[in-house]
Fold:
Amino acid sequence: MTTLLPTSIVGSLPKPSWLAQPETLWSPWKLEGDALTEGKQDALRIAVHEQRRAGIHVISDGEQTRQHFVTTFIEHLSGVDFEQRETVRIRNRYDASVPTVVGAVGREKPVFVDDAAFLRTQTDQPIKWALPGPMTMIDTLYDRHYKSREKLAWEFATILNQEARELEAAGVDIIQFDEPAFNVFFDDVRDWGVATLERAAEGLRAETVVHICYGYGIKANTDWKATLGSEWRQYEQTFPLLQRSAIDVVSLESHHSHVPMELVELIRGKKVMLGAIDVASTMIETPEEVADTIRKALAYVDAGDLVPSTNCGMAPLPRDVALGKLAALSAGARIVRDELDPPAG
Ligand SMILES: [Zn+2]
Structure:
């Protein structure tokens, strides 16, 4: 891409109220059957339209066809029983009732490929598609079959690679793996987390992203963040590993977080999707605040490698707030772009 500081969002946007309950995570669908299929596509069209209207460069589906960023993928796999549920701790943070792995996991048919092909028909701009990462997938399940987190992660990595290759063939330019679990299980990240992620991304021509964040602005996450102290240094453990990995882009949380900006230096040479929009607050950033975050990052990342973005998904936000944040992201990036490369005349 030739644009300096191309903008992108991490993932989700709020869903229209006729499709799912607004300002609610993982909200059930309000439609069913063919009406649901059509409703999801209409919502995706709106998500594309709003990103383009705001001047966002890399277009995502806003996760309009998904209820949950991990579960919706797992629902399409064999070997997982959604009736047998167990309560587990998610990312060592909150309890949730999760499905059980009861046999060999497999992907009998594509999961998001039709949705991605539809997104491709909606814009000529580069498109990005997000998948859960292997470690985050196993953390959302109870495993009765493999009885090994690592073994199950390798199985999921193979499945994700099949899906990613088909997404690429459907015209997806950038494939993102969401690995919030990388901010929690540091020994696993070192021992097999990065390796399984690379397996998921193996052989792709599409650009590959890993998104590591501190989560949506829900209470379990904000309570956890309150325990992390005045400096969030979790990235310090994973970034050196990712710097040496085959993954092209690292998506990280920055604005309003307590992540010291100098940690970005640890991934020098990689592209950086910099979170310049706080998704845990309904206050809309000013373009100048966004520009300020971008300027600070430029001390640690080459301008040609910087992609201004959001900290995480915006699904739980009111729609007008999310749209305001999209516009602020775009306007803030434009300020710095013009400083770096003043418009002629
Ligand atoms: Zn996130």
Notes: The longest strand covers residues 78-90.
